[in-house]
Backbone:
């Protein structure tokens, strides 16, 4: 073969291989997000809820959920993993669903929030809002103060809740990717958490009404100098709520939003939807 013809043939082959490689790259889904679900403590059926959440989230997004669970049913359990400054380094997002209201050591709590302040996204569910409340948590605190250590991370301060009664949920930001297309609904018997303050870094997405009481029940927060994305909902006391498709859809969207994998239309980014659907 003449040199010119050989070069032409090699160019065609290289081009063909290039197209093939790009096609293979498009066909290969990205690696699953790695999520750490920290769960356990007082007052809830966490043994079942950890299974509901893991299965529900993995069915809705390309995510692998590792579970860090304690059967301790008290309010003072300290997850020893949090003692390690690099406790979150292998994860794309952390789901806080612990209920440890009497863990109040500022140094311990600082080690938790430092990971998020340094850029690890988070999802906070239900009693996570009432955990790690250092200082004077029963009255409004100043953002950035020592008493606001955990609340700065959440973007909202809560100190208690009312009775277990149905909550009417109204989405207040229907154009937000997390809530786009979602319909208002009324829960079974649930706890409505109070609001002492909504911090300036937070955006309210839904409010809940229980009798004459109203409070924020879903919101996002941009935390710290890196504006780490944090999604939170106070809903999720009872198993029936946690297993509700509407709840799991909401939490899955919050997880994807926090990691930057949710489109403006409220859909998973390419490759981050349910793996079965992607195949």
Residues:
């Amino acid at each position: 073969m003449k040199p010119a013809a050989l070069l032409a043939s090699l160019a065609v082959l290289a081009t063909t291989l290039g197209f093939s490689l790009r096609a293979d790259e498009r066909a290969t889904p990205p690696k699953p997000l790695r999520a750490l679900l920290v769960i356990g403590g007082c007052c809830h059926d966490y043994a079942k809820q950890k299974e509901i959440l893991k299965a529900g989230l993995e069915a809705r997004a390309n995510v692998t959920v590792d579970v860090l669970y304690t059967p301790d049913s008290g309010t003072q359990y300290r997850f020893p993993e949090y003692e390690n400054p690099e406790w979150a380094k292998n994860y794309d997002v952390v789901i806080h669903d612990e209920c440890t209201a009497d863990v109040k050591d500022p140094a311990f709590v600082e080690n938790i929030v430092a990971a998020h302040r340094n850029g690890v996204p988070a999802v906070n569910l239900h009693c996570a809002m009432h955990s790690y409340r250092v200082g004077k948590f029963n009255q409004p605190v100043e953002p950035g103060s020592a008493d606001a250590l955990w609340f700065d991370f959440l973007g909202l301060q809560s100190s208690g809740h009312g009775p277990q009664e149905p909550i009417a949920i109204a989405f207040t930001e229907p154009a937000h990717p997390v809530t786009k297309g979602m319909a208002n609904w009324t829960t079974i018997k649930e706890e409505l958490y109070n609001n002492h303050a909504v911090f300036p870094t937070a955006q309210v997405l839904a409010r809940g009404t229980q009798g004459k009481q109203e409070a924020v029940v879903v919101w996002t927060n941009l935390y710290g100098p890196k504006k780490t994305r944090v999604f939170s909902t106070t809903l999720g006391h009872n198993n029936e709520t946690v297993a509700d498709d509407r709840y799991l859809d909401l939490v899955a969207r919050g997880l994807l939003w926090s990691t930057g994998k949710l489109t403006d239309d409220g859909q998973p980014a390419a490759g981050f939807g349910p793996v079965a659907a992607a195949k």
The longest strand covers residues 161-171.
